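Input sequence (104 aa), recorded before submission:
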Amino acid sequence: MAFDPNIRASDADRDRVASLLREHHAAGRLSPAEFSERLDRTFAAVTVGELDKLLADLPSIDLYRLPDAALTRQPRQVQHGQALRANRRGRSAGWRAAWSVWFT
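Predicted structure, token format:
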């Protein structure tokens, strides 16, 4: 089946294009004014061809392969000496810093 630019766009199509525009704006490819104009035109678009025109001069981005998607969130490892000091006193370095700020 060939791509037909006259097919009506769905809400999901508009949301996808809006997400892509946000990424391009964050990367500095779009000025705030141009981003705002394209976003308005995105939600007013009726066909997928209109949506494609909004992205025609921008490089393609895979939203599933953005740098944030590849980051792994692992707990911070505490040095053995820090853990002993924190356990011996019953509080962590973070609590000590918070209390010292509060006291000053």
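Checked by second reader. The chain has a mean pLDDT of 77.
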